[in-house]
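Predicting holo structure, nicotinamide-adenine-dinucleotide bound.
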Amino acid sequence: MATVAFIGLGNMGGPMAKNLIAANHQVTVFDLVPQACAELESAGAAVASSTKEAVAGAQYVVSMLPAGKHVAGVYLGEDGLLAHLNSSVTVLDCSTIDAATSREVGQAAAAAGIGFMDAPVSGGVAAAAAGTLAFMCGGDADTFEKAKLVLTGMGKNIFHAGPHGAGQVAKGCNNMLLAIHMLGTCEALEMGARNGLDPAVLSEIMLASSGRNWSLEVYNPYPGVMETAPASNDYKPGFMVDLMVKDLGLAMAIADDSDVDNAMGKLAQAIYEKHQSQGNGQRDFSSVLEHLKN
Ligand code: NAD
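Done. Tokens:
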């Protein structure tokens, strides 16, 4: 197994690092929050007092950080990790960040001879804890092959999307589509309900027809239709509106940079932002049904 430095032990990184320990990797962790490190120490990790100390002797570095500025801060510049890592190290950034920063860090790593992949995930905290995340990777084929040893300890489906930044683009495409088909599903169910249809019956009909989609299959937004969905549990997340708004912002930046006319994505972004501004940021994103109802 491998020696892994894990940086960023929040809601996602904490359980991901625990799964690497369970997969028999030797894990050294660092987070700015001492309590997060202490929790991993009890799970069997060594705790470092800085990012540089964490990566000493590591074969792999995995990071799970909030946004592009944190990732750039950790890796770039004279004081960043890329200036200190040995070229045999493989670096996997699993954070969801802007594709431009992933490309910038990937290019800086390549210039230093270091294998780097952006490897953002699909699946939330529950999938992180269960070790069933999907990884969408951007980088070269050699680094992808090396990355599998570590990624298989944290996830089930591991995809090579393309070169540096491609993982972030794949994630942006997927989450923009998720935002749109959830809204479409909400609109269809609400229209049916207002015309006297039982949303459960309408869901069955659409599941057996061409409207079938993931929101209907596993995440029905109408309360009471699907016992396991956040809608039937007062829209407790799940996947928060705040995170959907963050991901839509990243998707819109990708669209703007590549001159794509994504009218549906922009409309979805406006609707989720309005819903967020009405105090729903911490609720599950399928609560956007209530926005349509009101
Ligand atoms: P979080 O805010 O819970 O955790 C981020 C952690 O990074 C914090 O513990 C913070 O202290 C640490 N950190 C920040 N800067 C640091 C630095 N310089 N050095 C060391 N540690 C540092 O966030 P999260 O929910 O774990 O999400 C992490 C990433 O995963 C984000 O990019 C998010 O968009 C993405 N993501 C989250 C979910 C989800 O459901 N929460 C799902 C998919 C993807």
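The chain has two domains: 3-163, 169-293.
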